[in-house]
Amino acid sequence: MKGLVLSGGKGTRLYPLTYTSAKQLIPVANKPVLFRVIEAIRDANITDIGIVVGDTAEEIERAAGRGGRWGVNISYIHQEAPLGLAHAVKISEDFLGDERFVMFLGDNVIQGGISSLIAQFASSEYNSQVVLTRVDMPEQYGVAELDNEGRIVRLVEKPKEPPSDLALVGIYMFDHHIFEAVNSIAPSWRGELEITDAIQWLVEHDRSVYPYVHRGWWIDTGRPGDMLEANSLVLEELTPHIDGYVDRDSEVDSRVTIEKGAEIINSVVRGPAIIGEDTRLVNSYVGPFTSIYHHVLIENAEISRSIVLEHSQIRNLDQRIEDSLIGRHVIIHRSPIRPRAYKFTIGDHSHLGLLGNGR
């Protein structure tokens, strides 16, 4: 089997962060989401991976390279515009050939990997298998309707009256019949070739399309709140370790990871949390469910349930930062007039001064 990862798209729901960076490279628990997808595919014993890229191709290629660090071979497939998931499959035919493949959206985080899913599909004669999960509000998702034998008979996008509570996760398995489907469907009202239409074509032409119901958590990291939720869930699954320096005046609990080169000086860190390489915490508090990426300075400040990206500084704040997603090269500090506490989604290279205490 081969792997196909979709990493095009503009990431508009994560603006302003994604004005200057690919959404798939925003880290969850200090590891870019795209890297987690690559590892999930590799852990399922798939080593030949194609990544479909768009406007952020150069950045993604520079970050992921040819896959040597993961022991895989990565090829890049350029999509001229975000013309739909089925279009991404269509332009990948030369790479995929006649082999079965798994298609994985590059901004999804899923618990437990996909090894059991791949094993089930590889040992079956299914033409397609679609990962589903039960959700509380299926009307907000693409939803699958199943027949009495457990096969998918219909896919409905954001139905007013959902036929089930089984939502599409964004992980799909196909054999070569999918190319006939994507070459047969017409663009939707959005002007895109929809993967749901291609799967529906397979169903209507008597191909065997079965569900795989995922029992763990799954998050599409397309919005700031989703990114923070994914970060919290992944942090709880980390095996903590301390490779950096913690001075005797600091308190770091057993659920905290301190990466190499990091320094914790007269500070408190409550887990689950991760402090990245060459980051410095001085006279500060980092609360649970927080990821601080590499080369960050936090001094005389408090932060919890947040993500801070690389080369940022948070200094001399009177109020704690919570539920925030802070970009690269950001500076947040206290200015001398009037204190306030805010929630932040701050773009790269921002410089934000907060008002001082008591006026």
Question: What does the model show?
Answer:
The structure is a single chain. The chain has 359 residues and is an alpha/beta fold. The protein has two domains: 2-234, Spore Coat Polysaccharide Biosynthesis Protein SpsA, Chain A; 238-354, UDP N-Acetylglucosamine Acyltransferase, domain 1 (3 Solenoid). It is 19% helix and 31% strand. The chain contains eight helices and 31 strands. The chain has helices spanning 33-43, 57-64, 85-91, 93-96, 115-122, 177-182, 195-204, 224-237; strands at 2-7, 27-28, 31-32, 48-53, 73-78, 101-105, 108-110, 128-134, 142-146, 152-157, 166-174, 209-213, 218-220, 245-246, 251-252, 256-258, 263-265, 268-269, 273-275, 280-282, 285-286, 290-292, 297-299, 302-304, 307-308, 313-315, 321-322, 325-326, 331-334, 345-346, 351-354. The chain has a seven-stranded mixed β-sheet, sandwiched between helices. Strand 2 (27-28) and strand 3 (31-32) form a beta hairpin. It is elongated, with a radius of gyration of 22 Å. It starts with a strand and ends in a 5-residue tail after the last strand. The model has no long low-confidence stretch (mean pLDDT 87).
